[in-house]
Amino acid sequence: MEFKKSPDGGWGWVIVLVSFLTQFLCYGSPLAVGVLYIEWLGTFGEGKGQTAWVGSLASGVGLLASPVCSLCVSSFGARPVTIFSGFMVAGGLMLSSFAPNIYFLFFSYGIVVGLGCGLLYTATVTITCQYFDSRRGLALGLISTGSSVGLFIYAALQRLLIEFYGLDGCLLIVGALALNILACGSLMRPLQVSDYPLPGKTALENIPDRYSVYSEKEKNLEENTNMLERRNSSEEMNKSPLAPDDGKHKNPDMAHTRETETYRKKVAEQTYFCKQLAKWKWQLCKNYCGETVTLFKNKVFSALFVAIFLFDIGGFPPSLLMEDVARSSNVKEEEFIMPLISIIGIMTAIGKLLLGILADFEWINTLYLYVATLITMGLALCAIPFAKSYVTLSVLSGIIGLLTGNWSIFPYVTTKTVGIERLAHAYGILMFFAGLGNSLGPPIVGWFYDWTQTYDIAFYFSGFCVLLGGLILLLAALPSWSTCNKKLPKPAPATFLYKVASNV
Predict the structure, then answer these.
(1) Ordered domains of the chain (ranges, CATH)
(2) What is the pLDDT of residues 445-469, one digit of tens each?
(3) What is the pTM of this model?
């Protein structure tokens, strides 16, 4: 399938708007899960480490399934995937309102909602990259602010809904809001052309490559038909010469022969189709593994997957646990001018937009910009144990939120590293490791608290992980950033030719 040239505008701005709304609606509740986390602690009475699994699964499962999500978007397109995933997110949120225990939430909120969010994230990023080229950084920055604005609004909204309608009513209302994703998905018009011969080639030049499998199929069926005719002729010669030759006996024999011939043709077609399908799937698997090995030969890409894994182990827990950190530091609720999660959310939106704009400047090295955000955020995480007041926690929450906005330039860095042709494949792999880090980070921090009864060691660990990831990526990028701009060789078109053995 050949894509049209990116329009860098036009209907692309509609794509940006609906992608923004999609991320706003699907990620609002999972990112603001810190408000629900405190309620679940009191409702189910489980430990902080175990309860943290709900929020970490909601953010991590979708990323862990990124290779599958990328395959779904590549196979079915962004529009149907978005509509289907909207049902998943809304259904999972509504189902969570009936949760009898924390283990039910692992499935309904963690897995169902998380997988739906992963599908929606991949769909919105992929279709935005297809519609934009020179303004891709700005477009990605705009759509990624949707999740941050959702975090800012949903943190206050869920607290208000819990106060008026309780935890169950809050989840039902939030799930109903998520149904608006279906309307957003209906506007995601695919940017693609049909599979017809390109103008540069005549139809006759394209026929052998495109229809070689079908001509081979016809040849195979012709061989089977010849075999059938030889068998029928031998049967006729073996018939007794004394058999009557009147029309009453001749017509049933001819009808039986035609039925046998039709049946054998159908069997031959089905057998051939199964063989070709098995060979095609095996070849597709080999090509996928080969492209994966090629990706990891790029040392910047290899460092990038380590960095994103460590970043999500250490960088995600603050958005989930910051409210509980303030309560553990004996900060009074009267001092809360604004929820700390809301501060993280609004600053993340600003950071995504600001970093997205900076990524479009030619004189700014986007990879070094991403590395700078990692190192600075690692230092900010290590400073959280020293914050004992609402003011200092608010400042650190704002810094962490601003730097978490580097999610908007991560697809941009990935595209520059591997090329637009391999974006879906590479991004799926990287999001898998990001999801693994998202799933492990909050439970690890919660277990540290259950073990030490303080968050100090937990956030030292988080800061060290983010710092280490940034330094590894910096060492890999310093001598060879120029190699990242060289596109990998474009994969050959997936044309498979097979020689089918004739039946004996």
Answers:
(1) 11-190+298-484 (1.20.1250.20)
(2) 888 888 888 888 888 988 999 999 9
(3) 0.64
